[in-house]
Design goal:
The chain has a single domain, classed as Alpha-Beta Plaits. The protein is an alpha+beta fold. The model has no long low-confidence stretch (mean pLDDT 87). The chain is globular. A four-stranded antiparallel β-sheet has the order 2-3-1-4, with helices on one face. The protein is built from three helices and four strands. The relative contact order is 0.26.
Length: 97
């Protein structure tokens, strides 16, 4: 398993861009925990990481959108330092979908 931070910036100046944003958010929600509007923490196997990458690549427009993946060598919680309000996190907990 690996901890991954996913961030994205989707161009929403068109109705198609707004649909892409909704789809990207939905995909990310199925793989991780939303930390901010465009930021997700995920704990993934290599297979699920590749699946997430592929699903997002099929949705975005690579000429105007971007998705960034940050892989952490250790546990993401050990790398996180928060200023201000701390939000509940379910990273690594069993999920019921």
């Amino acid at each position: 398993m690996m901890d991954v931070l996913v961030t994205y910036d989707i161009n929403t100046q068109t109705p198609e861009g707004q649909r892409r944003l909704a789809r990207v958010a939905s995909i990310c929600e199925s793989y991780g925990t939303r930390m901010q509007y465009s930021v997700f923490e995920c704990r993934l196997s290599e297979t699920r990481f590749q699946r997430l990458w592929t699903e997002l690549a099929e949705v975005i427009d690579p000429y105007v959108d971007s998705v960034n993946f940050y892989r952490f060598p250790g546990v993401l919680a050990d790398a996180r330092h928060t200023l201000g309000l701390q939000k509940a996190r379910n990273l690594g907990k069993p999920w019921i979908l």
